[in-house]
């Protein structure tokens, strides 16, 4: 199934997960990949780590296109998954990666991580004050969900929270992922929500602003971020367990996807929003 | 009423970009210590100058939770107000106070506005108290064209939210008579 695949993206990565997780493929042929986005990259990395932990890691044939390999290396992908497939890290490739894969571990370190993302962005784009504030606030909220929720049950040895960011000709792409307990695992700790499905957890959090904490001030952050991305005509993918919320400027829905631990999120926003005329959310 | 004692609390002392609940918790410890140190009707003016980012999580942890405790009576008759150079900066505070059904007065550009949960009726009544500085429920009812009971309910809700002060000055029949004061001095 992956043979013939040329783009590894938020729209196609679930085909790879299906092949490995549901069909038990022992080999994955990614040689023909000509493009990959940060979300697919993070999810592929978590897939490799997860399958290695399950002692069922597939043999992967990596993309042959030099530009793709170089970018994957510049993003720190091969180091992340601990393979020896790394290619030389040239200065050109260092420039091409906007924000390499960064670990998100504890809440105390989030300010430093966000400052790093902020600095990378500011170096490349003349951000307006409003765009900088809005994006930074979004990153802080999303990043802190990892220490707050990815190991809410205390049963996950390493939820492996990671984030990365890349710019393109017309858009900016932010991806955040972990392989912790997922939205269902976190929300399921709240009385009345035990045993809920992934799609119901997604719905409760996004539409009703519910949090696992029964505190009136908690919850609603993801709901607000979804609203901001919609107002920007952006693309958002939020994947947890076997449910995926995906929408772009044409609309969207919740879809069934192969079951995978944790939460993975992608936000793609048009670069035109970084002009002085950025829309106030 | 004596002149109110107002102490400023600058959020920027904790950094220019504030977002995590952990940071908010740390800042709230300082804010609550300051509140406790004030005289009984003292006020903390929370100043948002020199801030770049104030996330909703930080806002809830610092302002939302401190406001909840204030309304629960943990700080006596002390009050808190906000002072911001930019309306964008109070977005997160507005959202989280509304989520908790709380409200605070906020100074922006020389004008006081209500942030968080409010209704047109509460805003109208509060504005009248701010304008008059000192009044009674009877005066307010007459000026707003309300039944006395409706006005008393509005005043009670505003007092509960620590947006005004009420002081009992007597009784008329079975009903308490209150003098109503603005919490904004000057």
Query: Which value, in Å, is the CA radius of gyration of chain A?
Result: 18 Å
**SSE arrangement of chain B, N to C:** EEHEEHEHEEHEHHEE
Number of discrete helical segments of chain A: 10
Helix and strand content put the structural class of chain A at: alpha/beta
Low-confidence stretches of chain A: 276-281
Second CATH tier, the architecture of the largest domain in chain A: 2-Layer Sandwich
Notes on the structure:
The complex is a heterodimer of chains A (281) and B (186). Chain A has 281 residues and is α/β, with parallel strands linked by helices. Chain A has two domains: 1-93; 101-281, Histidine kinase-like ATPase, C-terminal domain (Heat Shock Protein 90). Chain A has ten helices and nine strands. The longest helix of chain A is centred in the middle third of the chain and has 21 residues, at 129-149. Chain A is globular. Mean pLDDT of chain A is 89; it is low at 276-281. Chain B has two domains: 6-116; 120-182, Winged helix-like DNA-binding domain superfamily/Winged helix DNA-binding domain (Arc Repressor Mutant, subunit A), CATH 1.10.10.
Q: Topology, please?
A:
The complex is a heterodimer of chains A (281) and B (186).
Chain A: E1 7-8, H1 13-22, E2 27-29, E3 35-36, H2 38-53, E4 59-61, H3 66-74, H4 77-80, H5 91-96, E5 99-104, H6 110-124, H7 129-149, E6 161-167, E7 171-177, H8 182-187, H9 198-207, H10 221-231, E8 235-248, E9 251-270
Parallel strand pairs in A: 1-3, 2-4
Antiparallel strand pairs in A: 5-6, 6-7, 7-9, 8-9
Chain B: E1 6-10, E2 17-18, H1 21-37, E3 43-47, E4 53-54, H2 56-71, E5 79-83, H3 91-99, E6 103-108, E7 111-116, H4 120-132, E8 134-136, H5 137-144, H6 148-160, E9 164-172, E10 175-182
Parallel strand pairs in B: 1-3, 2-4, 3-5, 5-6
Antiparallel strand pairs in B: 6-7, 8-10, 9-10
């Amino acid at each position: 199934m992956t043979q013939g695949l040329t783009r590894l993206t938020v729209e196609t990565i679930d085909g790879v997960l299906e092949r490995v997780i549901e069909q038990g493929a022992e080999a994955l042929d990614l040689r023909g990949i000509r493009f990959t986005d940060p979300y697919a990259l993070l999810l592929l990395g978590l897939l490799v780590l997860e399958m290695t932990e399950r002692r069922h890691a597939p043999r992967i044939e990596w993309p042959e296109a030099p530009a793709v390999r170089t970018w994957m290396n510049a993003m720190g992908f091969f180091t992340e998954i601990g393979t020896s497939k790394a290619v030389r890290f040239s200065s050109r490739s260092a420039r091409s990666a906007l924000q390499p894969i960064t670990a998100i571990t504890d809440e105390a370190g989030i300010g430093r991580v966000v400052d790093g993302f902020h600095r990378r962005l500011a170096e490349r784009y003349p951000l307006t004050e409003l765009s900088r504030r809005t994006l930074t606030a979004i990153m802080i909220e999303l990043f802190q969900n990892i220490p707050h929720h990815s190991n809410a049950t205390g049963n996950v040895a390493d939820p492996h929270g990671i984030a990365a960011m890349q710019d393109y000709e017309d858009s900016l792409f932010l991806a955040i992922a972990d392989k912790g307990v997922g939205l269902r695992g976190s929300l399921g700790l709240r009385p009345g929500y035990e045993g809920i499905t992934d799609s119901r957890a997604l719905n409760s959090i996004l539409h009703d602003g519910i949090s696992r904490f029964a505190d009136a001030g908690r919850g609603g952050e993801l709901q607000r971020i979804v609203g901001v991305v919609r107002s920007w005509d952006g693309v958002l993918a939020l994947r947890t367990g076997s449910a995926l919320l995906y929408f772009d400027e044409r609309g969207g829905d919740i879809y069934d996807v192969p079951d995978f631990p944790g939460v993975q999120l992608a936000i793609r926003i048009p670069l035109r929003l970084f002009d002085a005329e950025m829309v106030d959310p | 009423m004596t002149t109110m004692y107002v102490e400023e609390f600058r959020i920027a002392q904790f950094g220019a970009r504030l977002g995590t609940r952990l940071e908010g918790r740390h800042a709230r410890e300082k804010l609550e210590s300051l509140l406790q140190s004030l005289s009984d009707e003292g006020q903390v003016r929370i100043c948002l100058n020199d801030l770049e980012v104030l996330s909703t999580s930080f806002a809830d942890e610092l302002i939302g939770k401190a406001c909840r405790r204030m309304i629960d009576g943990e700080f006596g008759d002390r009050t808190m107000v906000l002072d911001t150079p930019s309306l964008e900066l109070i977005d997160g505070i507005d959202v989280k106070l509304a989520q908790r059904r709380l409200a605070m007065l906020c100074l922006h550009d020389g004008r006081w506005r209500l942030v968080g949960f409010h209704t047109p009726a509460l805003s109208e009544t509060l504005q009248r108290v701010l304008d008059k500085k000192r009044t009674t429920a009877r005066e307010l009812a007459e000026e707003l064209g309300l039944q006395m009971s409706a006005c008393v309910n509005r005043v009670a809700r505003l007092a509960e939210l620590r947006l005004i002060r009420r002081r009992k000055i007597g009784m008329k029949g079975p009903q308490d008579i209150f003098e109503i004061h603005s919490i904004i001095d000057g």
